[in-house]
Design goal:
The protein contains 23 helices and 17 strands. The chain has about 725 residues and is of the alpha+beta class. Strand 10 and strand 11 form a beta hairpin. About 50% of the residues are buried. The structure holds adenosine-5'-diphosphate and magnesium ion. The site of magnesium ion has 4 residues, from strand 11.
Length: about 725
């Protein structure tokens, strides 16, 4: 049996099946995913029966048969040991936003002076890490340390090689002893199920459910990042501690010439990218594109899309590999949303769609009117969801880091709207007016048979400024921050869409019954679509989202404009949100509140750490350097005076310098004071407000004084690598 190189969904959609057996494919398949326990690895090591059972869980989401756990564990162990693994771990995604792993040795003493390799079904299925130090948002007190990890058999186990050490990693969900989610995977899985359930109802109404056992959420997220030379990174405590520069004068050149975007990739960078791709390929993460991004020193990598759960695990792995590969090439990879002020920041474009498990993309307009109608129903259900829950979607991407880029004319504004493109918007016009008669392209419709227009495939245009753009056969949610785990935004997205699919399915059933004939269905679709267009069209905007005029217009339309994280987070605790997440079984009230709690803490803690780091750098590096230079200038003034020459200019320079140094000192004192005050505020929301309104502006002012000094202090005295050094050394 030949295993396709991409043993996942994108393969199913993107490549004709007959290519599976060609030579190139076979050659690739031998290396692709060689460090994952999937495909041919499983085939070779498991009996046909066990293989099929496991496969059913992996691809159809059926419950795992516990009886096979021991067999699978034994096969996994053998495979891992052959690859030089000494340890295994349950790999999970706590609320910190990163991944967690606690390694257990395979070898244990056998009691007779020897060692045996142990790893049973029990150890595969369940782990019990001491979870007391992970954020739980109050779900669990420290003395109730118990947390469980449970094997997620739908995401392939993999071997992570770090510096020659190999560890078997088993993707798991992480829950408390009450079964409440303590991680990002559990609610994501629940939200995927909710989408599937209600999308299936719609397929049933259209009679498109034959042979379909579930609807799959598909994800491909483009990742932007910066690379800086390691030598510079090491000399910048702000980069080391906070992942972004907290000060730094602008480089004379930024991206004004647009000469970096899509430019020829420098040799060292290409070497790095190739190694990243090789490592990812071994881990079964299919990489599709690589290129230079807008800012100097900025790049992008995009995977082939996969089912949302695996794509999310793979996204975490991608960030890990990006970070850990950079030092091999003398660099550091910065995933922060805004490593450098004044130039483009980094985001993560979340390409999202839904498909049947038989491989039909439900957001791909088809040629026949019938499936076309179905397409419009799914499309408009999504429009409805985004309009009703724009606030939650906005909140799902809120973080201290992302606040630096949203709305800064490099990323979409914090107003969530949808781009549909001229042609689809025209169709909405027609639906609103009554019977659609034609497509924008001028193709005439046969009104006798079809009441909805034909939609050419990939009809979507591009709009780089829209936070949520339809791109022909998927939506691109473009407002995610680059360092974020995609699990939470997608959990929210799936949940609000599940709610809308539920509503639309309910309305169609009401109008036409569960198995309507074509005529009845057409009428029902017309009615329901017209209602949705009427009520929710306001969220559709095809123009320039950066334009100030749009911001005013959006406010007129009543769209929420939640400018910062602090504005957005409270919406997650609203009654509407609590009800929504509970209704679709994604998060109960306690679980949701816990998450919001953790998000506040993360925001406040991040700002606090940045403030303290800034004060440290200003006091111990910038201030002493500025004083040294002040002394030099003062000596020069004295010497000039002694020589009896006109010292007007030098004297002025000294005065200017002393003033800046004063500002710097006052600035850093203020930051330190505000930071102390923030620390003292118990209530997380109030503290967040204080951070946003007092502490961050104080940091900004202190930074301005430092940046002005940087422009005059001689380079050999300046204690930090400069923007131009960091951005342009390749
Ligand atoms: P762009 O032109 O928007 O920069 P890229 O080619 O960089 O696009 O990335 C597009 C991303 O969208 C890829 O990760 C791709 O796999 C993903 N994608 C394509 N089709 C789908 C789909 N049906 N569902 C989810 N993601 C998809
Ligand atoms: Mg791209």
């Amino acid at each position: 049996m030949t295993i396709a190189p991409f043993d996942n969904l994108s393969d199913m959609f993107s490549r004709p099946k007959k290519m599976d057996r060609d030579d190139v494919t076979t050659a690739v398949s031998n290396t692709f995913g060689c460090l994952t326990f999937t495909g041919d690895v499983m085939l070779k090591r498991l009996s046909e029966e066990v293989f099929r059972k496991l496969q059913r869980t992996m691809t159809q989401g059926l419950a795992l048969d516990p009886a096979i756990a021991n067999t699978v564990a034994a096969a996994m162990k053998e495979w891992a040991l052959e690859h030089g693994c000494t340890h295994y771990c349950h790999w999970f995604q706590p609320l910190t936003g990163s991944t967690a792993e606690k390694h257990d040795a395979f070898l244990a003493p056998d009691g007779h002076g020897h060692a045996i390799a142990r790893f049973s079904g029990d150890e595969l299925i369940r782990g019990e890490p001491d979870a007391s130090s992970f954020p739980s948002g109050g779900i669990r007190d420290t003395y109730e340390a118990r947390g469980y990890t449970a094997w997620d058999a739908t995401s392939p186990a993999f071997i992570l090689k770090t510096n020659g050490e190999a560890t078997l990693c088993i993707p798991t969900a992480f829950v408390s002893w009450t079964g409440e989610a303590l991680d990002k995977k559990t609610p994501l899985l629940r939200s995927i199920q909710a989408v599937s359930h209600h999308a299936m109802r719609i397929l049933k109404i259209f009679g498109s459910d034959k042979g379909v056992s579930q609807v799959i959420t598909t994800l491909g997220s483009e990742q932007e990042y910066f690379l800086v030379d390691r030598e510079f990174f090491r000399r910048r405590p702000d980069l080391e501690i906070c992942g972004r520069t907290l000060l730094g004068a602008a480089s004379p050149k930024g991206h004004q010439l647009s000469d970096h975007y899509f430019g020829a990739i420098a040799e060292r960078i290409l070497g790095y990218m190739s190694e990243v791709e090789r490592r990812l390929r071994d881990l079964g993460v299919p990489v599709q594109t690589r290129h230079n991004e807008v800012a100097p020193g900025q790049y992008e990598i995009a995977p082939f899309f996969e089912n949302a759960n695996v794509a999310t695990d793979h996204q975490m792995l991608m960030m890990h590999i990006l970070r850990t590969t950079a030092p091999h090439h003398g660099m550091e990879c910065l995933l922060h949303e805004k490593p450098f002020a004044g130039i483009n920041g980094s985001g993560k474009h979340n390409n999202w769609s839904i498909a049947t498990d038989t491989g039909v993309n439900l957001l791909d307009p088809r040629d026949e009117a019938h499936t076309n109608m179905q397409f419009l129903v799914f499309l408009m259900a999504i429009v409805r969801a985004i309009d009703i829950h724009a606030d939650l979607l906005r909140a799902s991407i809120g973080s201290a880091g992302n606040d630096h880029r949203l709305g800064a004319n490099e990323a979409p504004p914090a107003i969530i709207s949808i781009f549909l493109g001229e042609m689809l918007s025209d169709i909405l016009d027609q639906i609103e007016r009554g019977q659609p008669t034609s497509t924008k392209q001028g193709g005439q419709l046969d009104l006798g048979a079809h009441t909805l227009p034909q939609i050419p495939r990939h009809s979507g245009d591009r709009n780089r400024t829209s936070p949520f753009a339809f791109t022909g056969n998927k939506f691109e949610f473009r407002a995610l921050g680059s360092s974020t785990s995609i699990a939470w935004p997608n959990t929210v997205l799936n949940t609000i869409i599940a709610e809308s699919l539920d509503y639309v399915a309910g309305r169609l059933e009401e109008e036409a019954g569960t198995r309507p004939d074509h005529g009845k269905l057409e009428d029902a679709v017309q009615t329901v679509l017209r209602e949705i267009v009427k009520d929710h069209r306001r969220v559709v905007f095809d123009g320039d989202n950066y334009d100030e005029k749009w911001h005013a217009e959006a406010e007129r339309r009543g769209l929420p404009h939640l400018r910062t994280t602090v504005d957005a987070l409270p919406t997650l605790g609203s009654k509407k949100a609590v009800k929504l997440f509970a209704k679709y079984g994604v998060l109960n009230e306690r679980e949701l509140r816990a998450r919001v709690d953790v998000l506040w803490k993360q925001y406040n803690t991040t700002v606090g750490i940045e403030a303290r780091t800034l004060v440290m750098i200003l006091r111990t590096r910038v201030f002493p350097a500025a004083l040294r230079y002040q002394t030099e200038v003062a000596h020069a003034v004295a010497a000039a005076q002694a020589a009896g020459v006109d010292f007007e200019d030098t004297w002025g320079q000294l005065q200017d310098h002393v003033r800046l140094v004063d500002e710097l000192r006052a600035g850093s004192t203020l930051v330190a004071r505000e930071e102390q005050q923030a620390e003292g505020i118990e209530d997380a929301e109030r503290r967040g407000l204080f951070c946003r309104d007092k502490l961050i502006p104080a940091m900004q002012r202190a930074r301005e004084a430092a940046d002005s000094l940087e422009a005059v202090v001689p380079n050999d005295l300046w204690p930090l690598p400069t923007y131009s050094e960091m951005l342009f050394k390749r």
